[in-house]
Design brief:
mainly beta, 9 strands, elongated
């Protein structure tokens, strides 16, 4: 065999072995979209439907086994709130509002109590639906802008010492559905607890004893790359 052809054959074999090796790694990757809202000083109600906003992001999920899975994701969305939504007439008179774009990156460990292998005893794919719960840690960055209508209130914002980032603790519940051997659909909702009272830009001038949080509800679409067949020529 000519030396050039031999090198070419070895290179092709090495690439194929590398792809096959990576194909055995049980990973999903995909995108998701949904809505965000928040709870804080400018949100009297638990969930204000008029303040729901579109959000989207990307994710990668690693399967340790059938029941435990680690996920990394990033969410980009918007949160807002205003006194006009409150039932308290005093808050209507105050008439503050805010708007902020928010980006969160996080690592979340999921527990799938009914999770099982996606292959049967002879290696054939078997469809399943898998509910799960999860928690983890993240970092949120935001940039709130507070609006006021009374001239005397303008001097209160931005508040001294306000920050634009916070550690977050995701608390989530969801379910995944197998479309096929490679494609999965997921539904998820949950809150992001923060250690920060400035998601809305208001703290000392509101309720500094209660931290803010935001909520994400959405749907994901992922591609499962954990099968050798997905890379065969």
């Amino acid at each position: 065999m000519p030396r050039t052809m031999k090198r070419y054959t070895i290179a092709i074999a090495a690439i194929y072995c590398t792809l096959s090796l990576h194909a055995q790694i049980p990973i999903e990757a995909g995108i998701f979209a949904g809505t965000t809202t928040y709870q804080g000083d400018l949100a009297e109600n638990q969930v204000e439907l008029s303040e729901l906003h579109f959000a989207f992001g990307a994710m990668v999920r690693y399967h340790f086994d059938e029941k435990f899975k680690l996920r990394a994701n990033v969410i980009y969305g918007r949160i807002s709130g205003k006194d006009a939504n409150a039932k308290d007439p005093a808050l209507h008179a105050r008439d503050w509002s805010f708007n902020s774009y928010i980006v969160e990156t996080s690592l979340t460990m999921e527990y799938h109590p009914f999770g099982r292998s996606r292959e049967d005893e002879v290696g054939l794919f078997r469809r399943q639906n898998s509910p799960y719960v999860g928690t983890g840690i993240g970092l949120a960055n935001f940039d709130p802008s507070v609006k006021t209508t009374r001239p005397g209130d303008f001097e209160r914002f931005p508040e001294r010492g306000s920050s634009t980032s916070s550690i977050t603790v995701p608390l989530i519940v969801g379910i995944t559905f197998d479309f096929s051997r490679f494609f999965l659909l997921g539904l998820e909702g949950g809150s992001r607890i923060t250690f920060n009272d400035y998601l809305d830009g208001v703290s000392k001038n509101g309720n500094p004893k209660k931290k803010d949080l935001f909520i994400f509800v959405g749907v994901s679409f992922t591609y499962f790359v954990g099968y050798e067949e997905s890379f065969r020529f």
